[in-house]
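hey can u check if this looks right to u? its 233 residues, i copy pasted from the old doc so theres a chance i mangled smth
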Amino acid sequence: MSGKPQVSEAQRRGAEAAELVARAKAGDTAAFDELVRKYRPRVYSLALTLTGQASDADDITQDAFLKAYHKLPEFEGRSEFFTWIYRITLHRALNAKRDRKRMRIVPLDDPRLLAAVAVDSHGNPERAAQLRDRYRALLEAFDQLSSLLQTTVVLTTLQGLSYKEAAVVLETTEGTVAWRIHEARRKMRDYLADLDAGRARTRRRPMSDSAVFRLEKALMQLMPVVPSPAAVG
């Protein structure tokens, strides 16, 4: 039996990123390009989920990596690179949300809605029509959450970060992350319950709690591979 310690997948990815960062700080532009290639889809997905605007998400993604490139000499490696770039992205996305008045109604061409329906409808037009209205309401419920609750949900549920990793990005505790997830789901269910009451009065099909988790599953499948329409300059 070998005494060599087992290296987890997360540790391996962290070590690879640390090596790329070291090379990039030494002037290897190809190493930074590789960091962009590795993390750009998830950074773009994070920005898209928080803003609901493809153009905003693309601008935020470019700004985040440009800032990371210029600030790279100041990056001391006390946290992992993905934690650092996520934090930069979150700040950019939240600033964009403050600059744009929050919409209470999700438009039918919202890229999050189109993507979620496409993932979960499996090419069935009838099912897509059924899902569109329900998922639209779910996104409206998500958009009513505070920025802190939204970012916590996105990082853990959609981006797949552990509570510990999310706590580092958000500069808080694991307990606070857990509470925010619980509170976000409670608020979404309350919003949907109010919507159900209105639908019952109009004899429309009520929405079940399972729709929340179906949307989460659909977005979880989608988010790591959402393409950005333009490359980082």
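The chain has ten helices and no strands.
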